[in-house]
Specification:
homodimer; elongated
């Protein structure tokens, strides 16, 4: 089998090595050194250049390096072939690490100390015990439930909100628009892990921020279109929100002139919270390559109408 | 029993409440409202004003709010009475939280993203799995061993160095000056938790930084006098060190004109990494107050010659 790799964000050498350990006879090629396009059976890609996949006449399947394929589905040149999303343990564990890092950082007032450092001001903020820090998670799917468990293990108070009620051990659960205000009322740190749908688009807005306690912090690790950018800036400037960590933006890379870059209460990371590490992510890809070779049905094929 | 409280960094109301829950008849007074100095049997203090304790004629014991009493012992007006250091679970757990927050922050490249944000630069750094991040802990006493356990639980690679060899499960252990270079060689994040002694003073210097891999990060949570300030700045400027988080300084509060305040690769916190929370810290104090009332020997009395 010949597999063509493309990603600006992932390491081709590490993926090639991890895949060849599982499939020693794999013909692994890295764009643009694709060789004869007729050879290529499958592509392992993240946001390939428009038309790249359409130029592969014998392509049989496309494997996404990411779990969310909404951006790839927007490319009109994407061939009408099975598209498989990444399902991988490291997607979940890396998200857990990222959110834990941010929650501990806020819990121990590093955002306030950063502001004080700019003024050379020495002032202690007594840390409360972790159970007194209430973290609210919006979106209690696979990622949300894992993050809740990681935070519970560190002793934080955790509550979850989702469209339909999800029961997770040790987590106070809320569902639907009618319970949103009750959910948000004591939340000192809000984590957004919602899927992007018509209902959740623009959900992080002035009204929602107004339902949080004054000075709450935001960790936004879902999709840029959940957030109304101007409302975030207004909430930070008024003190309604204390600080925000944003890993996702409406436009990525974030344009250089966007005010988020220079806001002192915003910490930006370049969509780095969660992703697949070759060591664990190679296994589901290898399994699908075996299935492709043997003509068996592929796993994790996206339903294009639903979008996931 | 009448107890006089003094601290600029701790909340007298929370301590009074936590102590009175254990000793309902406690006469709890907060400096400067001490009432008749003749009444006071004991003092619960952190860095009291010089001479304050000497003005209490019937004082029988001094309880420190901190574990390290080196600063209090330097006060020549400290009365020659039993001085008890704080021994409290929350001292250890708060230190574990702080170091974990910093290690996760470095592991997930938040220091690099902070630097990139200043230049509006969007560039991803692939996170490695936690076992590939090697954290070195100098000082493997009670705090060091606890921190090692917290980091092990998150999957980090942990090695420890101390004066005499300490065996801690899952931690590669080194001891003495002759093993220092071997200990430091793969350490990407160095945590200083050493006691301050003649041998460890100024130990964090250019020579030691030169034994770390280029770009290593430092978490300094021990005592300001372990660190040669100018050597840290030189190592950051040359790129030998990538970033430093400092919770302790030679002079606290750090003077406003000190270059640490404004160095872009230094994160300062105001000696906030570890301390006693009233809820758990009140128990050992209450126990010593009971012992004082009943004439039994006090616990955790400092040996003034050793200094701890």
């Amino acid at each position: 089998v010949a597999l063509l790799f493309y990603s600006e964000d992932d390491d081709p050498a590490a993926w090639g090595e991890a895949l060849r350990r599982r499939l020693p006879d794999l013909d692994f090629r890295v764009w643009p050194e694709a060789g004869d396009p007729e050879d290529i059976d499958a592509a392992l890609v993240w946001l390939p250049p428009s038309g790249m996949l359409a130029g592969l006449p014998r392509l049989k399947a496309v494997f996404s390096l990411a779990a969310g394929v909404d951006a790839m589905l927007r490319d009109p040149t994407l061939p009408d072939l099975p598209l498989c999303r990444m399902v991988d343990r490291s997607l979940t564990t890396t998200m857990g690490e990222y959110v834990l890092a941010c929650v501990l950082w806020y819990h121990r007032s590093f955002d306030r100390y950063e502001a004080q450092q700019r003024e050379a001001r020495w002032q202690l903020h007594l840390p409360s015990p972790p159970e007194a820090t209430v973290v609210g998670i919006m979106g209690m799917g696979e990622l949300g439930a894992h993050v809740a468990g990681v935070l519970r293990e560190q002793g934080f108070g955790v509550r979850g909100w989702s469209r339909t009620l999800k029961r997770v051990e040790g987590v106070t659960s809320f569902a639907g628009p009618e319970q949103l205000a009750e959910f948000l009322q004591p939340v000192g740190i809000l984590v957004c892990l919602l899927p992007l749908t018509a209902e959740t688009e623009n959900m992080l807005d002035a009204r929602l921020f107004g339902l949080l306690p004054r000075g709450a912090r935001l960790i936004q690790v879902a999709r840029g279109r959940h957030l109304v950018d101007e409302d975030l800036i207004a909430a930070l400037n008024s003190g309604q929100l204390g600080h925000a960590t944003l890993d996702v933006m409406r436009q990525e890379p974030l344009p250089e002139r966007h005010p988020f870059w220079r806001h002192p209460q915003i910490r930006l990371t370049p969509h780095s919270a969660s992703y697949s590490q070759p060591e664990s992510g190679a296994e589901p890809v290898a399994e699908n390559l075996r299935r492709l070779r043997e003509g068996r049905p592929l796993l994790h094929v996206v339903d294009r109408r639903r979008g996931y």
